[in-house]
Design a protein that fits this description.
alpha+beta; 2 domains; five-stranded antiparallel β-sheet; 7 helices; 5 strands; 52% helix; elongated
């Protein structure tokens, strides 16, 4: 008689949209997964997942401002080129080789345009309201505002992809949630029967738990029999 444990290291959310063939047990469930996905934009903007997105956004803004600050026509062309590049990047992140590439592309286009044109919009707005501030100061302010705004918009894009069932991995990678750890414990009997238990804990550091999430048994002939007692 033996046993084996398989531990989950990374949180993988459950399918949020209606599944034609839903799983018997999901951990975390769809409502919890939806709540977690909706937290991504704010947490990403506040740097809870690090500041890599902010630094990339500041670089994009610096390129656009450096190309077009002295000529509005160049500003427009730079915004257009960067918007196209961002659309491609968003599509690659969430839609490349996915089951619904057209839907992801339709979502990536407006977000790419918004992210590509926002530095020019911020520069124009600051030029009107703070025209007596030195140009370098206006550019730095535009880059800072854009860095946090772009992180928020990117988080909204990932959250919408998850809510629409288009892509689930990236949004929870960004979230970096430490909870919902679980492992599978299995027991093999001499007659060939295999019993399995899934044990999970929402917050590893909080009191209470863990809980039995699911339990099942494989018969000696390979049949699977669910056993009452799952969460």
């Amino acid at each position: 008689m033996g046993s084996e444990g398989l531990r989950s290291e990374i949180l993988h959310g459950t399918r949020i949209v209606t599944d034609p063939k839903p799983a018997a047990v999901a951990y975390p469930n769809a409502s919890t997964t939806r709540r977690l996905a909706l937290q991504v934009p704010l947490k990403l903007m506040l740097g809870r997942a690090g500041y890599l997105v902010h630094m990339a956004a500041a670089l994009i803004a610096s390129i656009e401002l450096g190309i077009g600050w002295h000529h509005w026509r160049r500003f427009v062309w730079a915004s257009f080129a960067l918007s196209a590049a961002i659309v491609w990047a968003l599509y690659t992140i969430a839609g490349h080789r996915r089951a619904q590439p057209r839907q992801v592309l339709a979502l990536a286009v407006p977000f790419g345009i918004a992210l590509g044109s926002l530095p020019a919009g911020l520069a124009m707005a600051l030029h009107r309201v703070a025209r007596f501030v030195p140009l370098l100061g206006r550019d730095v302010a535009s880059m800072l505002v854009y860095a946090f705004a772009a992180a928020f918009l990117f988080g909204v894009f990932l959250a919408l992809c998850a809510l629409g069932g288009l892509e689930m991995q990236q949004v929870f990678t960004v979230l970096g949630h430490p909870g919902f750890k679980h492992f599978v414990r299995m027991r093999v009997s001499p007659d060939g029967t295999i019993d399995a238990w899934v044990v999970g804990k929402d917050d590893p550091l909080a009191p209470g738990g863990p809980w039995l999430i699911d339990r099942w048994m494989w018969g000696a002939r390979g049949s699977v029999e669910p056993v009452p007692g799952g969460r």
